[in-house]
Automatic annotation (TrEMBL):
Signal peptide: none
UniProt entry keywords in alphabetical sequence: Cell projection, Cilium
Keyword Endoplasmic reticulum: no
Record-linked Pfam families: IFT57
Protein's name in the database: Intraflagellar transport protein 57 homolog
Source organism, top-level taxon: Eukaryota
InterPro entries linked: Intra-flagellar_transport_57 (IPR019530)
GO CC, one annotated term: intraciliary transport particle B
Segments crossing the lipid bilayer: none
Organism the protein comes from: Formicarius rufipectus
Ranges of Basic and acidic residues composition bias in the record: 1-14
A biological process term (GO) from this entry: non-motile cilium assembly
Annotated compartments: Cell projection, Cilium
């Protein structure tokens, strides 16, 4: 229980404190998100996400190496995340309706989380 409270407190830090916390973890901590994004992209490429309906159906471009690591356009990034999540759930064998760009974000995330819990 205490560990959960500690994690929740870490997530609620202001950006200034987050930078200090990252510096305390070591010099490479600031780049960890970029490494995770590159790993994600490699895995998506192995699943052939570019050629399948994940991107084609929505006329989307392939992800850059740091697409989710840098906050550039939160609305577009959220929609891309939801589109990929829906595609992965469908690819795993569960029927899941692709979200539309103007769907309620809370409802979309709730649906994704419900499906993931069902796994």
């Amino acid at each position: 229980e205490e560990a959960g409270l500690g994690r929740r407190a870490e997530r609620e830090r202001p950006p200034e404190e987050e930078e200090v916390a990252a510096a305390e973890r070591g010099p490479g901590a600031a780049f960890h998100m970029f490494v995770l994004m590159e790993d994600l992209l490699d895995k998506l490429k192995l699943l052939n996400y570019e050629e399948e309906e994940a991107l084609r159906r929505h006329n989307m471009r392939p992800l850059s190496r740091h697409y989710f690591a840098l906050p550039t356009n939160p609305g577009e990034q959220f929609f891309m995340f939801c589109t990929l999540a829906a595609w992965l759930i469908t690819k795993a064998g569960r029927p899941f309706e692709q979200p539309q760009e103007y769907d309620d974000p809370n409802a979309v995330i709730s649906n994704v989380l419900s499906e993931l819990r069902a796994f």
